[in-house]
Design goal:
By secondary structure, the chain is an alpha/beta fold. It folds into two domains: 3-174, 3-Layer(aba) Sandwich (Rossmann fold), CATH 3.40.50.620; 187-276, Pantoate--beta-alanine Ligase, Chain: A,domain 2. 38% of the residues lie in helices and 20% in strands. The protein has ten helices and nine strands. The chain has helices spanning 8-20, 36-48, 76-86, 96-99, 118-121, 125-140, 152-164, 194-199, 202-215, 221-233; strands at residues 3-5, 25-30, 51-56, 90-92, 144-148, 170-174, 238-246, 260-269, 272-281.
């Protein structure tokens, strides 16, 4: 039976009872404004676990002072319906005061991984992510947690957190879910005007161009990055934050391509910041 739980204490007690009964718990953390990407994670958890818990919490700690915390979409009733339809048994939807009561002063930080790329562009972002995910893990006690590749660096940060804290949690990173034209599904896509939405497809087009170049034999990162930046700049609404080609586990820049590489993009389309990535095997 689907239930919505808002109390952290009640959620923790429910999860503990499930663990004592040896139930496998699949956990999908979200900030709401659910789309097919989130639903695919919930369905994956449903297929492998006895109980599926999805969380819905717009985490203030991971937003910078000039970011979109206040206007971030919060269609709670629609989100609850979508989570239930996708296969969630429990929707954990605490308030900020429930997770961060008066006097809260603890933080979790994955230092090296969290400082590059997104961490450099959004100082403190991954500290907020790691702190809330550590809290949610402790409260929901999952057997396996599910994340999307679209937020690739975030997934690596959480993977490192699990390993470093010796948490008894498996982690699944599932492929990015895209619109038919290739745009990665994101709650922030709703901010785009119709014209910006058309231009936003340039992110995936550029990733696919670089992938084709690599498969055609290009092994130098510099001309690929230059070509990606040039193609992105052809979209009038686009403003580049970063373009990078990195080693896929530690996110260190690579200049000579070999093995597997990760292509990373962060681009403003108008006032909306979008990220995307692609993993490419270098033959």
């Amino acid at each position: 039976m689907f239930q919505i739980i808002r109390s952290a204490r009640r959620m923790a007690a429910t999860a503990e009872r499930l663990r004592l009964r040896r139930k496998r718990i699949g956990f999908v953390p979200t900030m709401g404004a659910l789309h097919e990407g989130h639903c695919s994670l919930i369905r994956a958890a449903r297929a492998k676990n006895d109980v599926v818990i999805a969380s819905l919490f717009v985490n203030p700690l991971q937003f910078g002072p000039h970011e979109d915390f206040r206007r971030y979409p919060r269609p709670f009733r629609k989100d609850a319906q979508m989570a239930r339809a996708a296969g969630a048994d429990v929707l954990f939807a605490p308030s900020a005061k429930e997770l961060y009561p008066e006097g809260f002063q603890t933080s979790v930080e994955v230092e090296k991984l969290g400082r590059r790329w997104e961490g450099a562009s959004r100082p403190g972002h991954f500290r907020g992510v790691a702190t809330v995910v550590a809290l949610l893990f402790e409260i929901t006690r999952p057997t396996c947690a599910y994340f999307g590749q679209k937020d690739y660096q975030q997934a690596l940060v959480i993977q490192r957190l699990i390993a470093d804290l010796h948490l008894p949690i498996k982690m699944a990173i599932l492929p990015t879910v895209r619109e038919p034209d290739g745009l990665a599904m994101s709650s922030r896509n709703a901010y785009l005007t119709a014209d910006q939405r058309r231009q936003a497809t340039v992110l995936f087009e550029v990733l696919r161009w670089a992938q084709a170049e690599i498969r055609s034999g290009q092994r130098q990162a510099a001309p690929l990055i230059e070509g990606m930046r040039r193609r992105l700049s052809e979209a009038p609404a686009a403003r580049i934050d970063y373009v990078a080609i990195v080693e896929p586990r530690h996110l260190e820049p690579v200049w000579r391509l070999r093995g597997r590489v990760a292509l990373l993009l962060a681009v403003w389309i108008g006032a909306t910041r979008l990220i995307d990535n692609l993993l490419v095997d270098v033959r």
